[in-house]
Design a protein that fits this description.
Blueprint lengths: L9 H54 L8 E8 L12 E10 L4 E10 L2 E12 L7
Antiparallel strand pairs: 1-2, 2-3, 3-4
Length: about 140
Amino acid sequence: MRSNSRGTSLVEVVIAMFIISVGILALLSIQPEAWKMAGRTDFLGRAAGILQNELERTELAIMNPNNAVVVGTNSRTVNASGEASAQPGDMAYTVTTTVAAVGTDSWRVTVGINWTGHAQGISGSVLVTRQEHFRS
C-alpha cells in the first residue's frame, strides 16, 4: 500500500520557524521591563525590612517605663547592608521617624522610608503604650 503523505514541506518548516522567531522576539522585548520590576521589588523588600526594624526598635524603647520618650521627628540614613559605612553596591535609605503623644501614656510612632529614584517611599505606624513588664 502506498501512502499519500509526503512529510513536511519546506513551506511548513519556514512558517514554523517564523512563528517561533516571533515568540522569541516577544519574550526578549519584555525582558528589560522584567529586570526593572525585579530591581524595584528588591528595593521595596529592603525598605520593608528597615521599616519593620525601626518600628520595633522605637516601640520597644517606648514600652520600657525607664526610658524617656522624645516626641518629635528625626531623620537618619541607613544602608541596606546594615553596616555603618556603605558597602560596594549598597543602597542608602532615608529613615524618618516621628513620635507623637496620643494620650497620657500612649504614643503614635510613624516611620517613613525613602530612597533615590522612588519619590513616595513607604511608611507605617504603630500605637505604643507603656508596659510595666518591659521595665529593665
